[in-house]
Amino acid sequence: MILGMTTATYTLIHVLISLVGIASGLVVVFGLLGGKRLDGWTALFLATTVATSVTGFGFPFDHLLPSHKVGILSLVLLAIAILARYAFHLAGSWRVVYVISAVVALYLNVFVGVVQAFEKVQALKALAPTQKEPPFLVAQLVVLVIFITLTILAAIKFRNQPLRAA
User: How far is CA 60 from CA 7, 68, 97, in A?
Assistant: First the structure.
């Protein structure tokens, strides 16, 4: 039991929150590419991505795992993104700080999603049972390259566009 729920129920809620975070994060990133703040989507993305990281710590553990380190890093990045967006209102260099921290937090969520896919989807697990095999490494490299590209483009486009609420 976790917070009064079965582990299966807690896991399902955690996964659903993660998927909402990823989907809304992708919408936000494409908004950034068009110079749009997308206030509602941004709030949903930041809230669900924080919730994803926080609920990740609810699973039983007896020592610090790599997933916990990713969760801690994600929470730090999200704190920076939230401060840049809501406390500093994207003023000056806070705009780029926001873009980088938000997109990297999204990347970490997707990174964990790929890890989980290779652990839980039997066809993927068969391709990379230890996650050290080329299919896993290639998948993570492709995701990394996509997010590096998106981060750079979003930082350029969002910086050079007048802010528009959408």
Answer: 9, 11, 34
- CA–CA separation, 130 and 38 (whole Å): 39
pLDDT in tens, 68-101: 999 999 999 999 999 999 999 999 999 999 999 9
CA distances from 16 to 8, 21, 34, 41, 86 (A): 12, 9, 27, 16, 26
Q: Which of 64, 86, 83 is nearest to 75 (CA)?
A: 83
Which of 161 and 140 is assigned the larger pLDDT? 140
Which residues contact residue 151 at a Cβ distance below 8 angstroms, ignoring those fewer than 6 apart?
Answer: 99, 100, 103, 104, 107
